[in-house]
């Protein structure tokens, strides 16, 4: 199986950073890691400013990266992956990346 990085950028709803951090670290990150093929994840805070305040990088091992995104979409907003209103949904961006060769 190949290794990839699932990279997600997001922001908290205005004034809700503390709620966002509690939800992301305590609920969302473990929910994403529960998806088969997602090995681990870590959340980061932007140190220089920019469009997104938060980034998460997940280690993924799969032969079908699209299936990971599909499963994430199926689970989002369900009991398997509740989404907090502390997340600004319009800010969320994600993609799966592979190591550049050459």
Note down, in words, how this protein is organized.
The protein has 102 residues and is α+β, with helices and mostly antiparallel strands. It has a single domain, classed as Alpha-Beta Plaits. Helices cover 27% and strands 30% of the residues. It is built from two helices and four strands; from the N terminus they run E-H-E-E-H-E. A four-stranded antiparallel sheet has the order 2-3-1-4, with helices on one face. A hairpin with an 8-residue loop joins strand 2 and strand 3. The longest helix is centred in the first third of the chain and has 17 residues. The mean pLDDT is 97.
Question: What is the secondary structure topology, with strand pairs?
Answer:
Blueprint: E1 2-10, H1 17-33, E2 38-45, E3 54-62, H2 65-75, E4 93-97
Antiparallel strand pairs: 1-3, 1-4, 2-3
Strand order of the largest sheet: 2-3-1-4
Put simply, the count of helices is 2
Number of domains: 1
Which segments are poorly predicted (pLDDT under 50) over 5 or more consecutive residues? Answer: none
Q: Calculate the terminal CA-CA distance, rounded to whole Å.
A: 20 Å
CATH class: Alpha Beta
- Outline: globular
Structural class: alpha+beta
Q: Examine the coordinates and then state which fold CATH places here, giving the name of the CATH topology.
A: Alpha-Beta Plaits
Query: What kind of sheet is the major sheet?
Result: 4 strands, antiparallel
DSSP summary, beta strand count:
4
CATH architecture: 2-Layer Sandwich
Tell me the fraction of residues in β-strands, as a range. Answer: 25-35%
Helix content: 25-40%
Q: What string gives the helices and strands in order?
A: EHEEHE
Quaternary structure: single chain
- Rg on CA atoms, Å: 14 Å
């Amino acid at each position: 199986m190949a290794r990839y990085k699932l990279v997600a950028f997001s922001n908290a709803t205005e004034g809700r950073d503390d709620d966002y951090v509690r939800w992301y670290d305590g609920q969302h990150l473990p929910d994403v890691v529960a998806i088969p093929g997602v090995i681990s994840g870590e959340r980061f805070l932007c140190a220089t400013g920019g469009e997104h305040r938060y980034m998460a990088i997940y280690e993924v091992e799969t032969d079908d990266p699209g299936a990971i995104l599909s499963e994430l979409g199926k689970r989002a907003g369900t009991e398997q992956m509740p989404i907090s209103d502390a997340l600004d949904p319009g800010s969320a961006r994600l993609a799966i990346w592979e190591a550049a060769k050459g």
